[in-house]
Amino acid sequence: VTDAIIHPKDGAMYFAVGGRGAKSFLYKVTYVGDESPTPVSGQNKVGVSERRLRRKLEALQRPGDKGDLATIWKSLGDEDRFIRNAARIALEHQPVKTWSDKALVEKNPQALLSALTALARHGSSEQKDAILKALGRLNWRKLNETQQLHLLRNYGLTMARMGKPDPKLAASIVSKLDPHYPAGSDPLNR
What pLDDT, on a 0 to 100 scale, did the predictor assign at position 96? Predict the structure, then answer.
């Protein structure tokens, strides 16, 4: 899709596809059915508090004061991934020295994973071993699949950005993960 618009007069959706040597086409999509095409009010009551929290965290995605860090930290372990991601991005905007030690000792597995993603993205290479050891504290069997994928992503992210671990630490990571391969799902196996 190269462009799309909802026409203000007929309410139809028009979109174009193609370009870069491919044939281009323009499509018009209209509704045919018994349900009313009247636009909804936009007042969805479900998830209001979650959206409010996410927007609050998005507003903190700038350098702030120490009070912001407490608000951000509470949401790093949230069940809602959009809230967690907003909190992680807000954390990444804070000076690393104000939160890196706290990230390394976090007890909540989900908050730890989120905080270590931020640290792997913005920390220094001297923190590599500490990050990998903190990840090593997590019990694979107690993590849900999303958290297991997050753990694997953090291992990869840390090594890609900060370099290979020393052979002894690498061997301990392999010995921890190897018994779980192959896993019961394609995403984990990839």
Answer: 96
